[in-house]
């Protein structure tokens, strides 16, 4: 670090330095004698604006700025899973072990553990031609994750040597002779600039459902593998529970959770809770396939800005191995506030509510890195990054700029409702406000691969729920007696949909997850009930008698019936239902 500039101004996390003509935007620099980590975010002549990721108190004009001539990069390799990093990928657990709760300024600590030995199993053939993205071998990163070691970007040639056995991440495990005759020594670390997307062969249209086992999501507002969704969460509306449920149950191999500047104690909750979450598929801790990135609001604002890029870079890296990765960013509102703060310090022209004009494009850049791709190195290897961003609009009002910008980008919106949460209807996803633009392609996927009439049934659910809203409005104005009997049956059926199907208890051993097959059965039962009730009411049968039927309770308990007993129970329910309606008819 010989070359250096000179600090001319310090304004919180923003430092301006002169003599910087030889650096580039997004280069990392070390600021002041303390060597604080910073990133160049703007260049004007020889003046650079530097976003500093550590506390800048006590540094001042005249102090040096050292160049590294490298962009802000993630270090990728075995050891990422089950780690907790901050926004610029400093390993919080190792730092805590070495220094205690307070991170010393300007420390140089390796992001990935350099001492740990991994058992490398080679799989590529020596003497074969290899290029970027091809698999050289793997290590068992955790009990549940096989970490494939890929030929790094921009490397191509003949594989002349491949290691077998133990190695640390920085030891050579392969040698590749390039076409120019150069020998490249490859270890298990890859560096990648976080603000640039990692390459792939091609992006595929997301057309498969990411089954979550959460009924309101899979049936009404499904997310595709490689899709993008937003979930706004007024406090106490169940945002955390939804995210935990997705982390546990969604059809994803790897979870990257970016806790972005939530209040310190909320982030602590996540840090404390995640390691205790059990992975239902393996019985192990969920951390065995999770990477956590944690920035609390008491960490410098700039690190928060970087954290979502660090997170998505890690997500892309596992995608490249052919995994389905889900990244959750919580919350993008706090991230946007960091952007706003830096923008105002840069004295840029403020846009709506002080957010910079590039808020939307930055958000889009993040979400666009999600997707379902054919991976570099092997077009048959398919990987996906599915992105779920939490938004926390002040006062729950989604007309503010961050929510609006997010809504323009994402394809799925799960609107959490404080009213539903207050009524203890969980998950409190408002079926009247939420939407999924993947609905059509996913219905095609399900009708082809699961159940032929899925789309027809779902459409009927949606209509009933919408009609209920209208009817309830009428009831509110003129009372329930003004409704026809048909409408009363609609209300009863919609209530069944809400209470017996949409409502789902995350803490109930069986109810916590429902397969598509069982969801289908549950919907079938409710709609059958609706049809039979309609016939009965047209024959002038008593509404009370329909309301009091024994089968209603059985339908209500169906969600607590084990997956493998569901089919049988549904058969019995159908029989009981038919006999009860038959009896009514004969009365
Ligand atoms: P937020 O993160 O939005 O502040 P939480 O996710 O912590 O809210 O949820 C608040 C409370 O609501 C939880 O402690 C829990 O009691 C209840 N809750 C939320 N979702 C569910 C659910 N799916 N099943 C059962 N209870 C839930």
Key traits:
587 residues, alpha+beta, Elongation Factor Tu (Ef-tu), domain 3, OB fold (Dihydrolipoamide Acetyltransferase, E2P), Rossmann fold, six-stranded antiparallel barrel, globular, binds adenosine-5'-diphosphate
Quick overview:
The chain has 587 residues and is of the alpha+beta class. 35% of the residues lie in helices and 23% in strands.
Explain what this protein looks like in three dimensions.
Helix content is 35%, strand content 23%. It has 587 residues and is an alpha+beta fold. The protein has 4 domains: 4-71, Elongation Factor Tu (Ef-tu), domain 3; 113-188, Beta Barrel (OB fold (Dihydrolipoamide Acetyltransferase, E2P)); 202-434, P-loop containing nucleotide triphosphate hydrolases (Rossmann fold), CATH 3.40.50; 454-586, Bovine Mitochondrial F1-ATPase, ATP Synthase Beta Chain, Chain D, domain3 (Orthogonal Bundle), CATH 1.10.1140. The strands form 5 sheets. Strands 8, 18, 19, 20, 21, 22, 23, 24, 25 and 26 form a 10-stranded mixed β-sheet that branches. A hairpin with a 2-residue loop joins strand 1 (4-11) and strand 2 (14-18). The protein is globular, with a radius of gyration of 28 Å. The model has no long low-confidence stretch (mean pLDDT 92). Bound molecules: adenosine-5'-diphosphate (ADP). Adenosine-5'-diphosphate (ADP) is lined by residues 233, 235-241, 426-427, 504-507.
């Amino acid at each position: 670090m010989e070359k250096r500039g000179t600090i001319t101004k310090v304004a919180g996390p923003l430092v301006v330095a002169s003599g910087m003509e030889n650096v580039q935007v997004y280069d990392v620099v070390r600021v002041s004698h303390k060597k604080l980590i910073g990133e160049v975010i703007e260049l004007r002549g020889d003046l650079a604006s530097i976003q500093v990721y550590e506390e800048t108190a006590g540094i001042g004009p005249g102090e040096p700025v050292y160049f590294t001539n490298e962009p802000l990069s993630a270090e990728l390799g075995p050891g990422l899973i089950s780690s907790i990093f901050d926004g610029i990928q400093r390993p919080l657990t190792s730092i805590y072990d070495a220094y205690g709760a307070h991170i010393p300024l300007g420390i140089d600590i390796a992001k990935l553990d350099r001492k740990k030995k991994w058992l490398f199993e080679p799989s590529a053939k020596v003497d074969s031609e290899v290029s970027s993205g091809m698999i050289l071998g793997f290590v068992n990163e955790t009990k549940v994750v096989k970490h494939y070691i890929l030929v790094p970007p921009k490397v191509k040639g003949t594989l002349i040597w491949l290691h077998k056995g133990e190695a640390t991440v920085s030891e050579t495990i392969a040698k590749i002779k390039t076409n120019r005759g150069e020998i490249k020594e490859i270890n298990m670390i890859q560096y990648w600039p976080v603000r640039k997307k990692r390459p792939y062969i091609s992006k595929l249209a997301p057309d498969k459902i990411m089954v979550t086992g959460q009924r309101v999501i899979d049936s009404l507002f499904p997310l595709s593998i490689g899709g993008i969704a937003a979930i706004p969460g007024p406090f106490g509306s169940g945002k955390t529970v939804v995210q935990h449920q997705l982390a546990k149950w969604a059809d994803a191999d790897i979870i990257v959770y970016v806790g972005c500047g939530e209040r310190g104690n909320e982030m602590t909750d996540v840090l404390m809770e995640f390691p205790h979450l059990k992975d239902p598929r393996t019985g192990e801790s969920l951390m065995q396939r999770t990477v956590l990135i944690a920035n609390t609001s008491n960490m410098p604002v700039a690190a928060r800005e970087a954290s979502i890029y660090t997170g998505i870079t890690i997500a892309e890296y596992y995608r490249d191995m052919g995994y389905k990765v889900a990244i959750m960013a919580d919350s993008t509102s706090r991230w946007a506030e960091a952007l706003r703060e830096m923008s105002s310090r840069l004295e840029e022209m403020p846009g709506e509510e002080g957010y910079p004009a590039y808020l939307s494009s930055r958000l889009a850049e993040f979400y666009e890195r999600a997707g379902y791709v054919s991976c570099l190195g092997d077009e048959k290897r398919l990987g996906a990054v599915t992105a779920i961003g939490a938004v926390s609009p002040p006062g729950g009002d989604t007309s503010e700029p961050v929510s609006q910008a997010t809504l323009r980008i994402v394809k799925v919106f799960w609107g959490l409702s404080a009213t539903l949460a207050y009524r203890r209807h969980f998950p409190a996803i408002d079926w009247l406000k939420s939407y999924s633009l993947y609905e059509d392609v996913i219905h095609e996927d399900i009708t082809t691969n699961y159940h032929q009439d899925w789309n027809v049934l779902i459409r009927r659910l949606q209509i009933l729920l919408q009609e209920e809203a209208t009817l309830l409005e009428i009831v509110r104005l003129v009372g329930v007696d003004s409704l026809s009997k048909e409408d009363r049956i609609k209300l009863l059926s919609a209530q069944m949909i809400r209470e017996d199907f949409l409502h789902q208890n995350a803490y109930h051993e069986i109810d916590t997850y429902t397969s598509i097959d069982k969801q289908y059965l549950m919907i079938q039962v409710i709609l059958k009930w609706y049809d039979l009730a309609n016939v009965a009411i047209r024959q002038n049968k008593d509404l009370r008698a329909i309301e009091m039927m024994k089968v209603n309770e059985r339908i209500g308990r169906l969600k607590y019936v084990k997956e493998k007993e569901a089919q049988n129970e549904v058969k019995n329910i159908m029989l009981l239902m038919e006999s009860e309606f038959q009896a009514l008819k004969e009365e």
